[in-house]
Structures are given as structure tokens and as C-alpha cells.
Queue: 2 jobs
Job 1
Amino acid sequence: KQEVTQIPAALSVPEGENLVLNCSFTDSAIYNLQWFRQDPGKGLTSLLLIQSSQREQTSGRLNASLDKSSGRSTLYIAASQPGDSATYLCAVPSGGSYIPTFGRGTSLIVHP
Amino acid sequence: NAGVTQTPKFRVLKTGQSMTLLCAQDMNHEYMYWYRQDPGMGLRLIHYSVGEGTTAKGEVPDGYNVSRLKKQNFLLGLESAAPSQTSVYFCASSYTHEAFFGQGTRLTVV
């Protein structure tokens, strides 16, 4: 069974800092890994999808890396802004399937 | 460009009542999922489907039933609601790699 752990559980930083959010998983036989953002009371918005053959993906100020062999992914947020405040979720398929298993998320607050 | 649509968005039920949550996707995806999200627990998989006419149990299936009669729709049923089923329910769909989520249904059972 895939288990996904996200560290830290919560993070509060001043605007402008560069951030690293961590995701670890126990089953490295995965097809992909997906990072989501969730605003309070809202649904999940896909940020980045990394295929198992890729090492990283970038979108604007976001960069996600994947190290399958060690069961780790990091989401790097450059020059954080108050608008980045949200919960960030990592999802990894389990058991050789495409079914996403989620970590509990990192709750991020960026204050002005 | 609707994506994944969940109906209803909010609902209050009395203990013992039944209801059906509807999920519709317009992306021709094979895979569909129902999750529940509770504080401190993250998203947990209730049931899923890998294609029209198929369903399977996830991590927390007790008290729920599902049906996938049409490829675009995935229904989640609560036959006899309990307060423990108070939660936010999310539906998602995927072709293979990338999952897309609906906006959620906030259900309160009193």
C-alpha cells in the first residue's frame, strides 16, 4: 500500500522567501506524481505533473523534482507571495495503478 | 470547458436519510474516483471506477455505494446517512496520468 508523507505540515513565511515543500512515498513503482493546490473551502487545482521518466517540471515560479529511487519529491516555490497561501498536496499512484494516494498536505501562509 | 462537475455543492441530511451525489466529466476519461476529505486525515479514497460498468472499493468504502452506468457519470450513494459521514466529498477523473477534481460537495449529517 502506498503511503505518502508531506513535511512540513504547516509553514508560515514572510513574502519573498524561497520555499521547499517535501513529499515522500513508500512504493517507488509509480507512473507519475502530481502536486495540487487547495484554497480554503475549494477544490483541488493541479499545479504540476511529473511523469516517472522525468526528473523535474517547471511552471512559472514553481519547480517540482522527482527522485523515484529514494521515494521523494520536492516542490520549490520561488519568491513567495501572499497569493501563494494555500494547502499544497502531493498525490502518488499506488500499487502499479493510476489511482492517486494523497499526503495530508502542507498548509502554507505567506504574510506581507 | 466544464471538466468535472459535482452536484450538489452543499447538503444537510438527517441521520438515516439517503442521498446520491452526482459526478459528471466531459473529458472522456476512463478512470473516476470518489474521495472524502476530513480535517487532519487528508483525502481518502472511497470507491473508484476504471471504466463504464465497473466499480471497486477504495480505502473507506463502508456505508457508500457507487454506480457507473455511463462513462461520463459516477454516482455516490449513501443509503442511511450517519454523522460520521459528515465530510467534504470530492470526485475526480483521469485518463491515465493526470487527475482532475471537482469543486467538492460539503455534506453535513445531523
Job 2
Amino acid sequence: AQSVTQLDSQVPVFEEAPVELRCNYSSSVSVYLFWYVQYPNQGLQLLLKYLSGSTLVKGINGFEAEFNKSQTSFHLRKPSVHISDTAEYFCAVSTTQGGSEKLVFGKGTKLTVNP
Amino acid sequence: DTEVTQTPKHLVMGMTNKKSLKCEQHMGHRAMYWYKQKAKKPPELMFVYSYEKLSINESVPSRFSPECPNSSLLNLHLHALQPEDSALYLCASSRDRHQPQHFGDGTRLSIL
């Protein structure tokens, strides 16, 4: 079964600093990867997705991620963070079960941006 | 603005009550999902409906009963819940295979 591992449970960073949130996935022939963000008391919002094609994926709010097949990684990056980026970030892989698709989430990374 | 609407936003119920959670999407998505999320944890999949048919049940206790009346609506009927069922219940939908899921803001459920 496919899985993802988020290597850091918490990442503190200062405002305007760059940030990288790490995600590794289990190898498979076809991989569909996503990053979601969850703000307090809200649902999950899609940041970006990798389905195929270019390995550098740009998302909303200035985030981007690079699909690296040789290292089975899909790390999320932002060159300069804001206080408002403080949230929980989930990496996820889409996998097939019983003819239907399901998302398998990593355990999440809590990003805290400090002034 | 979320494109997946969940009601109610908050629900407090006793262990003997019967209640229902509702989820609605008008994006023409063919798959709909129920998740349970405990604090500081990722969402856990409960059920998947594909073309209005139940396709995945992740061994969820029978006190949770899903229903998909039409392609836009998804319900979760609750009966005789336990305190450990207190959580955020999220609904999501997706257009096609391996496409992104769109999430609602959830129903925060508390069992007394």
C-alpha cells in the first residue's frame, strides 16, 4: 500500500524566512501527490498537486513543490513566509482500493511563523 | 468560500440521540468522502461513494451510517455514539480518478 512520511512534526520559522516541509512517499509506478493546508477550525485546502508532467509544481499562496522520483520526495517550499502561513500542512498520496481512490495522508507538519 | 457545504457546523449530542450530518456539493463531482479527524491528527477515511454507490467502508462501526441520496448530497447518520466519537467530521468530493479532493469546513461533533 502506498504511504507518505512527513519527516518533521513541527517547523518553527521567522517571518520572511524561507521554509521547506519534507515529504517522502513509497515508490510506485504511478504517483499522484498533494499538499493540503489546514487553518484552525477549517477544512483542508489544496495547495498544489502533482499528477504528471513538470516536476516543479507551483501552487497557491507562493508555495511550490518538486517531485523527485529518484529520492521519492515531494518537499514543499516557500521562499518567504508570512505570519498567516501558520497552519498544519499535510502531504498526501492518492491510491486505489477496490476500484475507488482514496487519499493517504502523512501525519502532518505544524508550521509556526514567528514575528 | 468553500464549494463543499457541511451542516451543521457544530453538534452536541448525547449517547442515546440520533442525528445526521449533511454534505452538499454542486460541482458535478462523481466521488464523495467522509473523514473523521481527531485533534492534531490527519483525517482518517471512513467512507467513499462513487457514482452514488458505497465503494469503500474502512471498517467503520455500524453506529455510523452513510447515505448518498443523489449525486450532490451525502449524509452521515449517527446513532448511539460514544464519547471517543467526538471529532471533526469532514466531507470531501472529487471530480475523477486521482483528482484533488475538495473539503468542506467540517462538523465539530461532541458526544456527552
